[in-house]
Every structure is written in C-alpha cells, then in structure tokens.
C-alpha cells in the first residue's frame, strides 16, 4: 500500500462514508437495494456491530472496508466470518481487494482461529474470484436473505495454513 493508503479500525464518524461506499457497490448490480434502517442498521455503528470493522483510507477518504465476526461453531470451536468487503471502483485492480480479504485472516491468526468462512451475493462474481484467488473454496451451500434485493448468497470457506486442492 502507498503511504497515503492505510487500513485502520472504523470509528463512529466513518458510518456515512461506509454507507456511501457500499451503496455505490450495490448500484453496480441491478436489483440490489441499500436500505440502511431496515436491513443494514449495523452500518450506523460499524465498530459495535461486528467483532472488528476496518476502513481503508486514502488521504483521509474511506475507499474500502472489511469486517469480521467471530463466533463458536456447534462444537465450540471459534470461526471467523469475513464480512463487508467493499472497495471503491477507482481503487480496484491494484491488489487492495486482496488486502481487504487478508486483513481479517491476519486477525484470525492473532486469535489462533483456523476456520474462516464468508458469504457472497450470487451477483458479485468479481468478489467470488477474489475470494477464490486467496484460497477460499465454495462450500456448495446457498442461503436466501429474504431482503429487499432478493439476495441469494454462496458460501465459501478456508482453513488457514491449508492449501486448496486443485
């Protein structure tokens, strides 16, 4: 990353910029709707609504974000879910999206968490390629969100330190 670009913890004042960033991403896909109050209220207080929430900043402007949620699986093992990976169109193709995916993974390593998951809207094909490029594999699972966008998501998983099978 250049000297002007840095990844930092989100603060309450970042909420409007995060909402603008994600809304802009949704507008790239027909049928995707952003309704903060009804469906994304956590974005009003991003740092409190996730285990961790980071923003990618360039010269004081939020140009990307990433977040995670840590939770126990049915066996009590901790799992880290990568969430809210968004990058401004003007910053794509420069390796920054990869950094946004890898940053929560580094946090998982700090916590000793091996299993990572994420869900991605079926329309977000570039995101699927980005996840797969850093070792995530599709689980074969889908889930319908029953939201205004009529979203269906693909499940992805990764075991830290394990290379995916070709």
TrEMBL record:
Concerning Pfam families, the annotation shows: Acetyltransf_1
Q: Which UniProt keywords apply?
A: Acyltransferase, Transferase
Q: Does the keyword Transferase apply?
A: yes
**One of the record's GO molecular function terms:** acyltransferase activity, transferring groups other than amino-acyl groups
Instruction: Determine if Transferase is one of this entry's keywords.
Output: yes
Q: Which residues cross the membrane?
A: none
Q: Report which superkingdom the organism of origin falls in.
A: Bacteria
- Domain N-acetyltransferase intervals: 5-159
* PANTHER family in the cross-refs: AMINOALKYLPHOSPHONATE N-ACETYLTRANSFERASE-RELATED (PTHR43877:SF2), AMINOALKYLPHOSPHONATE N-ACETYLTRANSFERASE-RELATED-RELATED (PTHR43877)
Q: What is this protein called?
A: GNAT family N-acetyltransferase
């Amino acid at each position: 990353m250049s000297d002007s670009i840095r990844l930092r913890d989100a603060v309450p004042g970042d909420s409007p910029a995060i909402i603008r960033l994600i809304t802009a991403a949704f507008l790239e896909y027909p049928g995707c709707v952003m309704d903060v109050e009804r469906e994304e209220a956590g974005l009003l207080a991003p740092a409190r609504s996730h285990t961790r929430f980071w923003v990618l900043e360039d010269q004081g402007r939020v140009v990307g974000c990433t977040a995670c949620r840590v939770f126990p699986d049915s066996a009590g093992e901790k799992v880290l879910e990568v969430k809210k990976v968004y990058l401004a169109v003007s910053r794509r193709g420069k390796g920054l999206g990869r950094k946004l995916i890898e940053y929560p993974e580094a946090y998982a390593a700090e916590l000793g968490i091996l299993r990572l998951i994420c869900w991605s809207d079926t329309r977000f094909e570039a995101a699927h390629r980005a996840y797969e490029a850093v070792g995530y594999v599709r689980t074969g699972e889908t889930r319908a969100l029953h939201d205004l966008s009529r979203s269906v998501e693909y499940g992805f998983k990764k075991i830290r330190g394990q290379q995916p099978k070709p």
